[in-house]
TrEMBL record:
InterPro entries: Bact_Kbp, LysM, LysM_dom_sf. This is LysM peptidoglycan-binding domain-containing protein. It comes from Paenibacillus medicaginis. It comes from the Bacteria. Transmembrane segments: none annotated. It holds the Pfam family LysM. Residues 163-213 form the LysM domain.
Length: 214
């Protein structure tokens, strides 16, 4: 069963070129400790804490079919800059591991890189993701408390209606990227989003195919 790792930030899709050997998911139970005079401390459960997901891998300089998930891998420095940009993003990204139950909104809270001698060009990294969830606010009036669901408040919109493009005669992915995105080099983003439609060869697009735009 094929498994791939993706981070989606708005219309931008980033696929990790090399799958990590393992993924660590930290789950903890939250507690609030209250100290009562003469009775000591008491722990009150507060529900599950936000999960942290950690894994490490590397960005190869040269494509190798034995471990790379796709051919048009990004330059290691470019890939590292992409992760740094998502680290600074104010809105959460969507983290997906295909063919698993992991499809959650996250923030990148740590991104560490390592350069190893003797492996020129490759960049190793470790990344920590923290799952995001709708906040709940307790409003107190006198002695009563009322929980307000964040759905009644302004919220981050993670769902956007995808824009599509219908392939015409003479089109190529770079031409479509130039026309729709203003940058022909973004054809890779279009290809990654539509790989199942296009197939293994990004140069063989067919008239009438509907492609989802980043």
């Amino acid at each position: 069963m094929s498994v791939d790792f993706f981070l989606i930030n708005g219309g931008f899709i980033f696929q990790f070129p090399v799958n990590p050997e393992e993924v660590n998911i930290s789950r903890q139970k939250g507690y609030e400790t209250i100290t009562m005079l003469t009775h000591g401390e008491f722990d009150f459960p507060q529900g599950e804490k936000v999960k942290e997901i950690t894994f490490s891998s590397f960005f190869p300089k040269v494509y190798d079919a034995s471990f790379c998930r796709y051919k048009n891998i990004p330059d290691p420095n470019e890939a590292m800059n992409m992760l740094n940009a998502m680290l600074k993003a104010e809105k959460p990204c969507q983290f997906i591991i295909t063919n698993t139950l992991i499809n959650v909104p996250v923030y990148i809270i740590a991104h560490n890189t390592t350069f190893r001698g003797g492996e020129s060009g490759d960049i190793y990294f470790e990344i920590t993701l923290r799952t995001w969830r709708e906040p709940k606010i307790a409003l107190r009036s006198g002695s009563s408390a009322q929980k307000v669901n964040a759905s009644n408040l302004p919220r981050t919109n993670l769902k956007t209606k995808p824009k599509t493009y219908t392939v015409k005669a003479g089109d190529s992915l770079s031409k479509i990227a130039k026309l729709e995105l203003g940058d022909s080099s973004k054809w890779k983003n279009i290809y990654q989003m539509n790989k199942k439609v296009i197939g293994n060869n990004p140069n063989l697009i067919k008239v009438g195919q509907k492609l989802v735009m980043p």
